[in-house]
Amino acid sequence: MAEASIPVGSTTAGSIAVAAESTVATRMSAPPSYDVADFPVPHGREEEWRFTPLERLRGLHDGTAIATGDGVRVEVEAPQGVTVETVGRDDARIGKAGTPVDRVAAQAYSAFEKASVITVPKETVLDEPVRIAVHGEGGTAFGHQVIELKPFAEAVVVIDHTGDGVLAANVDYLIGDGAKLTVVSIQDWDEKAVHVGQHNALVGRDASFKSVVVTFGGDVVRLHPRVAYAATGGEAQLFGLYFTDKGQHQEHRLLVDHNQPHNTSNVAYKGALQGDEAHAVWIGDVLIRAAAEGTDTYELNRNLVLTDGARVDSVPNLEIETGEIAGAGHASATGRFDDEQLFYLMARGIPAAEARRLVVRGFFAELVQQIGLPDVQERLIEKIEAELEASL
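C-alpha coordinates predicted for Fe-S cluster assembly protein SufD:
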Protein backbone atom coordinates (compact mmCIF):
# COMPACT_ATOMS: atom_id res chain seq x y z
CA MET A 1 0.00 0.00 0.00
CA ALA A 2 1.25 3.47 -0.80
CA GLU A 3 0.84 5.99 1.99
CA ALA A 4 0.43 9.70 1.53
CA SER A 5 1.96 11.32 4.58
CA ILE A 6 0.34 14.72 4.74
CA PRO A 7 1.97 17.68 6.48
CA VAL A 8 0.37 18.87 9.69
CA GLY A 9 -2.58 21.17 9.11
CA SER A 10 -2.99 20.44 5.40
CA THR A 11 -5.86 18.97 3.39
CA THR A 12 -5.53 16.87 0.29
CA ALA A 13 -7.49 17.39 -2.88
CA GLY A 14 -10.74 15.48 -2.95
CA SER A 15 -12.08 13.72 0.09
CA ILE A 16 -9.12 12.81 2.29
CA ALA A 17 -8.40 15.20 5.15
CA VAL A 18 -5.64 14.92 7.71
CA ALA A 19 -4.94 17.59 10.26
CA ALA A 20 -3.28 18.17 13.58
CA GLU A 21 -4.23 20.96 15.95
CA SER A 22 -2.29 22.78 18.62
CA THR A 23 -5.07 22.42 21.20
CA VAL A 24 -6.06 18.97 22.45
CA ALA A 25 -9.50 18.17 21.05
CA THR A 26 -10.68 16.88 24.39
CA ARG A 27 -10.84 20.41 25.73
CA MET A 28 -14.60 20.04 25.79
CA SER A 29 -17.17 22.83 25.72
CA ALA A 30 -18.11 21.77 29.27
CA PRO A 31 -16.07 20.08 32.03
CA PRO A 32 -16.67 16.40 32.83
CA SER A 33 -19.87 15.85 34.80
CA TYR A 34 -22.45 13.19 35.65
CA ASP A 35 -25.26 15.72 35.18
CA VAL A 36 -26.78 16.11 31.71
CA ALA A 37 -27.77 19.68 32.51
CA ASP A 38 -24.10 20.65 32.71
CA PHE A 39 -23.71 20.01 28.97
CA PRO A 40 -25.35 22.27 26.39
CA VAL A 41 -27.23 20.61 23.55
CA PRO A 42 -24.67 20.35 20.73
CA HIS A 43 -25.30 22.05 17.39
CA GLY A 44 -22.33 20.69 15.45
CA ARG A 45 -20.11 23.75 15.75
CA GLU A 46 -18.44 22.55 18.93
CA GLU A 47 -14.96 21.03 18.61
CA GLU A 48 -16.06 17.67 20.01
CA TRP A 49 -19.12 17.45 17.70
CA ARG A 50 -18.02 19.09 14.47
CA PHE A 51 -17.55 15.80 12.60
CA THR A 52 -20.62 13.98 13.97
CA PRO A 53 -23.90 13.87 11.99
CA LEU A 54 -26.14 14.93 14.89
CA GLU A 55 -29.33 14.44 12.88
CA ARG A 56 -28.56 10.70 12.70
CA LEU A 57 -28.07 10.16 16.44
CA ARG A 58 -31.80 9.46 16.90
CA GLY A 59 -32.15 11.97 19.73
CA LEU A 60 -29.25 10.79 21.91
CA HIS A 61 -27.64 14.23 21.85
CA ASP A 62 -30.66 16.41 22.69
CA GLY A 63 -32.57 14.34 25.24
CA THR A 64 -35.43 13.22 22.99
CA ALA A 65 -34.28 9.59 22.94
CA ILE A 66 -36.30 7.55 25.43
CA ALA A 67 -35.43 4.05 26.62
CA THR A 68 -37.78 1.34 25.40
CA GLY A 69 -38.43 -2.18 26.59
CA ASP A 70 -36.95 -3.69 23.45
CA GLY A 71 -33.55 -2.03 23.77
CA VAL A 72 -30.67 -4.48 24.17
CA ARG A 73 -30.20 -7.96 25.59
CA VAL A 74 -26.97 -8.58 27.51
CA GLU A 75 -25.62 -12.07 28.16
CA VAL A 76 -22.39 -12.86 30.02
CA GLU A 77 -20.35 -16.06 29.84
CA ALA A 78 -17.69 -16.06 32.53
CA PRO A 79 -15.18 -18.71 33.66
CA GLN A 80 -15.41 -20.15 37.14
CA GLY A 81 -14.31 -17.77 39.86
CA VAL A 82 -15.46 -14.62 38.09
CA THR A 83 -18.21 -12.67 39.85
CA VAL A 84 -21.03 -11.28 37.70
CA GLU A 85 -23.40 -8.86 39.44
CA THR A 86 -26.31 -6.62 38.55
CA VAL A 87 -26.18 -3.57 40.81
CA GLY A 88 -27.99 -0.32 41.40
CA ARG A 89 -26.84 3.17 40.65
CA ASP A 90 -25.40 3.66 44.14
CA ASP A 91 -22.67 1.03 43.76
CA ALA A 92 -19.32 2.65 44.63
CA ARG A 93 -17.55 1.10 41.63
CA ILE A 94 -19.74 2.90 39.10
CA GLY A 95 -18.03 5.97 37.69
CA LYS A 96 -14.77 5.29 39.52
CA ALA A 97 -12.76 4.95 36.29
CA GLY A 98 -13.93 8.20 34.72
CA THR A 99 -16.59 10.88 34.39
CA PRO A 100 -18.79 11.56 31.33
CA VAL A 101 -17.18 14.11 29.04
CA ASP A 102 -20.06 14.87 26.68
CA ARG A 103 -23.83 15.11 26.77
CA VAL A 104 -24.53 11.63 25.42
CA ALA A 105 -22.27 9.96 27.98
CA ALA A 106 -23.92 11.99 30.73
CA GLN A 107 -27.35 11.04 29.38
CA ALA A 108 -26.36 7.37 29.45
CA TYR A 109 -25.12 7.71 33.02
CA SER A 110 -28.30 9.46 34.14
CA ALA A 111 -30.69 7.12 32.36
CA PHE A 112 -29.45 3.59 33.11
CA GLU A 113 -31.33 1.67 35.80
CA LYS A 114 -29.06 -1.28 36.52
CA ALA A 115 -25.36 -1.81 35.84
CA SER A 116 -23.40 -4.99 35.20
CA VAL A 117 -20.27 -5.47 37.30
CA ILE A 118 -17.79 -8.21 36.42
CA THR A 119 -15.00 -8.86 38.91
CA VAL A 120 -11.90 -11.04 38.55
CA PRO A 121 -10.52 -11.86 42.02
CA LYS A 122 -7.01 -11.07 43.22
CA GLU A 123 -4.21 -13.14 41.65
CA THR A 124 -6.69 -15.04 39.45
CA VAL A 125 -5.40 -15.83 35.96
CA LEU A 126 -8.22 -16.81 33.58
CA ASP A 127 -7.51 -19.43 30.94
CA GLU A 128 -10.75 -18.62 29.09
CA PRO A 129 -12.09 -15.20 28.08
CA VAL A 130 -15.09 -13.49 29.61
CA ARG A 131 -17.60 -13.03 26.78
CA ILE A 132 -20.26 -10.31 26.92
CA ALA A 133 -22.89 -10.37 24.15
CA VAL A 134 -24.80 -7.11 23.67
CA HIS A 135 -27.60 -7.67 21.16
CA GLY A 136 -29.81 -4.83 19.98
CA GLU A 137 -33.49 -5.68 19.62
CA GLY A 138 -34.66 -2.62 17.74
CA GLY A 139 -35.32 -0.18 20.56
CA THR A 140 -33.37 2.43 22.51
CA ALA A 141 -31.25 1.61 25.55
CA PHE A 142 -28.87 3.23 28.02
CA GLY A 143 -26.30 1.05 29.73
CA HIS A 144 -23.36 0.91 32.11
CA GLN A 145 -20.82 -1.85 32.64
CA VAL A 146 -17.91 -2.16 35.07
CA ILE A 147 -15.08 -4.65 34.58
CA GLU A 148 -12.74 -4.83 37.55
CA LEU A 149 -9.51 -6.78 37.91
CA LYS A 150 -8.21 -7.07 41.43
CA PRO A 151 -4.43 -6.83 41.97
CA PHE A 152 -2.31 -9.27 39.94
CA ALA A 153 -5.31 -10.79 38.16
CA GLU A 154 -5.16 -11.48 34.40
CA ALA A 155 -8.11 -11.67 32.01
CA VAL A 156 -9.32 -11.28 28.45
CA VAL A 157 -12.80 -9.81 27.92
CA VAL A 158 -14.71 -9.80 24.63
CA ILE A 159 -17.65 -7.39 24.28
CA ASP A 160 -19.61 -8.22 21.14
CA HIS A 161 -22.24 -5.77 19.85
CA THR A 162 -24.73 -7.08 17.27
CA GLY A 163 -28.31 -6.51 16.14
CA ASP A 164 -30.25 -3.31 15.60
CA GLY A 165 -31.23 -0.40 17.80
CA VAL A 166 -29.94 2.73 19.51
CA LEU A 167 -27.46 2.40 22.38
CA ALA A 168 -25.70 4.93 24.57
CA ALA A 169 -23.45 3.27 27.13
CA ASN A 170 -20.45 3.80 29.38
CA VAL A 171 -17.94 1.07 30.18
CA ASP A 172 -15.49 1.32 33.09
CA TYR A 173 -12.31 -0.72 33.35
CA LEU A 174 -10.66 -0.83 36.78
CA ILE A 175 -7.24 -2.48 36.53
CA GLY A 176 -5.68 -3.19 39.92
CA ASP A 177 -1.99 -3.02 40.75
CA GLY A 178 0.00 -5.56 38.74
CA ALA A 179 -3.09 -6.76 36.87
CA LYS A 180 -3.30 -7.41 33.12
CA LEU A 181 -6.52 -6.79 31.19
CA THR A 182 -7.15 -7.23 27.47
CA VAL A 183 -10.51 -6.03 26.13
CA VAL A 184 -11.78 -6.71 22.61
CA SER A 185 -14.79 -4.51 21.81
CA ILE A 186 -16.51 -5.50 18.55
CA GLN A 187 -19.08 -3.27 16.85
CA ASP A 188 -20.76 -5.58 14.33
CA TRP A 189 -24.14 -3.85 14.27
CA ASP A 190 -26.84 -4.07 11.64
CA GLU A 191 -26.80 -1.28 9.08
CA LYS A 192 -29.30 1.06 10.81
CA ALA A 193 -27.96 0.83 14.36
CA VAL A 194 -26.63 3.82 16.32
CA HIS A 195 -24.04 3.33 19.07
CA VAL A 196 -22.40 6.04 21.16
CA GLY A 197 -20.09 4.95 23.97
CA GLN A 198 -17.45 6.19 26.38
CA HIS A 199 -14.83 3.70 27.62
CA ASN A 200 -12.94 4.68 30.78
CA ALA A 201 -9.83 2.80 31.92
CA LEU A 202 -8.01 3.44 35.19
CA VAL A 203 -4.64 1.66 35.18
CA GLY A 204 -3.06 0.74 38.50
CA ARG A 205 0.58 0.56 39.57
CA ASP A 206 2.65 -1.66 37.24
CA ALA A 207 -0.61 -2.77 35.57
CA SER A 208 -1.21 -3.47 31.89
CA PHE A 209 -4.27 -2.55 29.82
CA LYS A 210 -4.75 -3.53 26.18
CA SER A 211 -7.82 -2.41 24.24
CA VAL A 212 -8.69 -3.65 20.76
CA VAL A 213 -11.66 -1.82 19.22
CA VAL A 214 -13.14 -3.31 16.05
CA THR A 215 -15.85 -1.42 14.16
CA PHE A 216 -17.64 -2.71 11.08
CA GLY A 217 -21.39 -2.19 11.25
CA GLY A 218 -23.91 0.45 12.18
CA ASP A 219 -25.22 3.62 10.63
CA VAL A 220 -23.42 5.82 13.18
CA VAL A 221 -20.84 4.55 15.68
CA ARG A 222 -19.05 7.06 17.89
CA LEU A 223 -16.71 5.68 20.55
CA HIS A 224 -14.61 7.56 23.06
CA PRO A 225 -11.90 5.41 24.73
CA ARG A 226 -10.09 7.18 27.60
CA VAL A 227 -7.17 6.08 29.75
CA ALA A 228 -5.82 7.51 33.01
CA TYR A 229 -3.28 6.17 35.51
CA ALA A 230 -3.73 5.60 39.24
CA ALA A 231 0.01 5.25 39.94
CA THR A 232 3.39 4.71 38.26
CA GLY A 233 4.60 1.86 36.06
CA GLY A 234 1.38 1.39 34.11
CA GLU A 235 1.17 0.42 30.44
CA ALA A 236 -1.71 1.13 28.04
CA GLN A 237 -2.00 -0.18 24.49
CA LEU A 238 -4.94 1.04 22.42
CA PHE A 239 -5.41 -0.72 19.10
CA GLY A 240 -8.28 -0.36 16.67
CA LEU A 241 -9.43 -1.34 13.22
CA TYR A 242 -12.47 -0.18 11.30
CA PHE A 243 -13.98 -0.82 7.88
CA THR A 244 -16.27 2.04 6.88
CA ASP A 245 -18.75 1.26 4.13
CA LYS A 246 -21.11 3.28 1.96
CA GLY A 247 -23.03 5.87 4.00
CA GLN A 248 -21.56 4.81 7.34
CA HIS A 249 -20.14 7.22 9.90
CA GLN A 250 -17.56 5.70 12.24
CA GLU A 251 -15.86 7.96 14.77
CA HIS A 252 -13.18 7.04 17.30
CA ARG A 253 -12.08 9.75 19.73
CA LEU A 254 -9.26 8.73 22.07
CA LEU A 255 -7.60 10.36 25.06
CA VAL A 256 -4.59 9.03 26.93
CA ASP A 257 -4.18 11.20 30.02
CA HIS A 258 -0.66 10.82 31.40
CA ASN A 259 -1.49 12.18 34.82
CA GLN A 260 1.13 10.17 36.74
CA PRO A 261 4.91 9.81 36.22
CA HIS A 262 6.71 6.92 34.54
CA ASN A 263 3.87 5.33 32.55
CA THR A 264 3.76 4.30 28.90
CA SER A 265 1.17 4.23 26.13
CA ASN A 266 0.99 3.08 22.54
CA VAL A 267 -1.92 3.83 20.19
CA ALA A 268 -2.38 2.32 16.72
CA TYR A 269 -5.63 2.52 14.74
CA LYS A 270 -6.09 1.46 11.12
CA GLY A 271 -9.10 1.89 8.85
CA ALA A 272 -10.28 1.05 5.35
CA LEU A 273 -13.06 2.92 3.58
CA GLN A 274 -15.18 2.31 0.51
CA GLY A 275 -18.35 3.70 -1.04
CA ASP A 276 -20.04 7.06 -1.40
CA GLU A 277 -20.28 9.08 1.83
CA ALA A 278 -18.33 6.57 3.87
CA HIS A 279 -16.88 8.75 6.62
CA ALA A 280 -14.27 7.75 9.20
CA VAL A 281 -13.09 10.09 11.94
CA TRP A 282 -10.13 9.43 14.20
CA ILE A 283 -9.17 11.85 16.96
CA GLY A 284 -6.09 10.82 18.91
CA ASP A 285 -5.30 12.93 21.96
CA VAL A 286 -2.37 12.42 24.31
CA LEU A 287 -1.96 14.75 27.26
CA ILE A 288 1.27 14.64 29.28
CA ARG A 289 0.74 16.62 32.44
CA ALA A 290 3.44 18.49 34.33
CA ALA A 291 3.61 15.76 36.96
CA ALA A 292 4.02 12.96 34.39
CA GLU A 293 7.81 12.87 34.15
CA GLY A 294 9.30 9.84 32.44
CA THR A 295 6.32 9.33 30.12
CA ASP A 296 6.88 7.33 26.93
CA THR A 297 4.06 7.53 24.38
CA TYR A 298 3.35 7.18 20.67
CA GLU A 299 0.16 7.24 18.57
CA LEU A 300 -0.46 6.24 14.96
CA ASN A 301 -3.43 6.34 12.60
CA ARG A 302 -3.35 4.88 9.07
CA ASN A 303 -6.18 4.81 6.56
CA LEU A 304 -6.63 3.02 3.25
CA VAL A 305 -9.20 4.54 0.88
CA LEU A 306 -10.48 1.88 -1.52
CA THR A 307 -12.93 3.89 -3.65
CA ASP A 308 -13.85 7.43 -4.58
CA GLY A 309 -16.49 9.16 -2.48
CA ALA A 310 -15.06 8.19 0.91
CA ARG A 311 -13.79 10.72 3.46
CA VAL A 312 -11.26 10.47 6.28
CA ASP A 313 -10.66 13.02 9.03
CA SER A 314 -7.58 12.14 11.08
CA VAL A 315 -6.55 14.49 13.88
CA PRO A 316 -3.57 13.53 16.09
CA ASN A 317 -2.97 15.82 19.05
CA LEU A 318 -0.10 15.80 21.52
CA GLU A 319 0.10 18.22 24.44
CA ILE A 320 3.18 18.15 26.67
CA GLU A 321 3.45 20.11 29.91
CA THR A 322 6.87 18.83 30.99
CA GLY A 323 10.20 18.41 29.23
CA GLU A 324 11.24 15.49 31.44
CA ILE A 325 9.86 12.66 29.27
CA ALA A 326 11.32 9.50 27.76
CA GLY A 327 9.63 9.97 24.39
CA ALA A 328 6.52 11.24 22.63
CA GLY A 329 5.33 11.26 19.04
CA HIS A 330 2.42 10.83 16.67
CA ALA A 331 1.80 10.11 13.01
CA SER A 332 -1.10 10.00 10.58
CA ALA A 333 -1.11 8.66 7.03
CA THR A 334 -3.86 8.20 4.46
CA GLY A 335 -3.53 6.72 1.00
CA ARG A 336 -5.00 4.66 -1.80
CA PHE A 337 -3.89 1.38 -3.34
CA ASP A 338 -0.37 1.40 -4.65
CA ASP A 339 -0.59 0.56 -8.36
CA GLU A 340 3.00 -0.69 -8.33
CA GLN A 341 2.26 -3.07 -5.48
CA LEU A 342 -0.80 -4.43 -7.27
CA PHE A 343 1.18 -4.77 -10.49
CA TYR A 344 3.90 -6.67 -8.60
CA LEU A 345 1.37 -9.22 -7.34
CA MET A 346 -0.50 -9.49 -10.64
CA ALA A 347 2.78 -10.00 -12.53
CA ARG A 348 3.21 -13.17 -10.50
CA GLY A 349 -0.10 -14.57 -11.64
CA ILE A 350 -2.33 -13.30 -8.85
CA PRO A 351 -5.69 -11.99 -10.17
CA ALA A 352 -6.47 -8.31 -9.50
CA ALA A 353 -9.29 -9.04 -7.04
CA GLU A 354 -7.13 -11.43 -5.03
CA ALA A 355 -4.24 -8.97 -5.07
CA ARG A 356 -6.49 -6.32 -3.53
CA ARG A 357 -7.57 -8.75 -0.84
CA LEU A 358 -3.98 -9.60 -0.01
CA VAL A 359 -3.03 -5.94 0.33
CA VAL A 360 -5.96 -5.17 2.65
CA ARG A 361 -5.44 -8.30 4.74
CA GLY A 362 -1.79 -7.39 5.13
CA PHE A 363 -2.79 -3.86 6.11
CA PHE A 364 -4.92 -5.15 9.00
CA ALA A 365 -2.91 -8.26 9.92
CA GLU A 366 -0.77 -6.72 12.65
CA LEU A 367 -3.79 -5.42 14.58
CA VAL A 368 -5.88 -8.56 14.10
CA GLN A 369 -3.05 -10.56 15.68
CA GLN A 370 -3.24 -8.37 18.77
CA ILE A 371 -6.58 -9.98 19.64
CA GLY A 372 -5.02 -13.32 20.49
CA LEU A 373 -8.27 -15.31 20.19
CA PRO A 374 -8.33 -17.54 17.08
CA ASP A 375 -12.13 -17.69 16.79
CA VAL A 376 -12.48 -13.90 16.97
CA GLN A 377 -9.56 -13.34 14.59
CA GLU A 378 -11.04 -15.75 12.03
CA ARG A 379 -14.41 -14.05 12.27
CA LEU A 380 -12.89 -10.62 11.65
CA ILE A 381 -10.86 -11.83 8.67
CA GLU A 382 -14.06 -13.31 7.20
CA LYS A 383 -15.80 -9.97 7.79
CA ILE A 384 -13.02 -8.11 6.00
CA GLU A 385 -13.25 -10.55 3.10
CA ALA A 386 -17.02 -10.00 2.89
CA GLU A 387 -16.58 -6.22 2.87
CA LEU A 388 -14.00 -6.48 0.08
CA GLU A 389 -16.23 -8.82 -1.92
CA ALA A 390 -18.92 -6.17 -1.91
CA SER A 391 -16.57 -3.61 -3.45
CA LEU A 392 -15.28 -5.77 -6.29
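The chain has a mean pLDDT of 89.
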